[in-house]
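The following record pairs a protein chain with its ligand, FE2/S2 (inorganic) cluster.
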Amino acid sequence: MATMTGQTALSLEVQSFADKTIASHQGKPGALLGILESMQERNPHKYLSTEVLEYVADKTDLPLAQIYSVVTFYALFNLEPQGEHTISICRGTACHTRGSRNLLQRLRLELGLPDMGEEGADKVCVTTPDGKYSLRTVACFGQCALAPVVEVDHVIYGHMNEQTLKRELEHLGHGGKRA
Ligand code: FES
């Protein structure tokens, strides 16, 4: 955490990366988004820690609240450490109509994640306790003609079904049901 004296728990290496990133985005449109994206990408667990957000706020002279509102607005930013593999399921109307809810339930079961009932069907962002898989939902990938759409480690799969999903999980090294 940054202190009154400007000290932070961030390593010198991360500070130096942040300084360079901030400098390279200075004066450019969308600078804050670019800075946050680079900082997240650099983190091995693909997330933005409180310390990073405070450091960026400090160095860019932007209010921390403004940075938080950006990070929480864009689905691409994470405030928690992410799993080694990320599986994102579209919960938009077209994908819902074509069975994305069942895919989500199937994945929860496969990964041993708790069923959160109706409430948990639309907004999910959860990581398995072993840190291997992150499961999340998105509002729409913009690929509705391919519904239902699932993204596995940044690769989009259209017309997804339970068998293909299971196969993809096996490719990622997942051995079977944990529940
Ligand atoms: S609703 Fe799923 S891609 Fe648009």
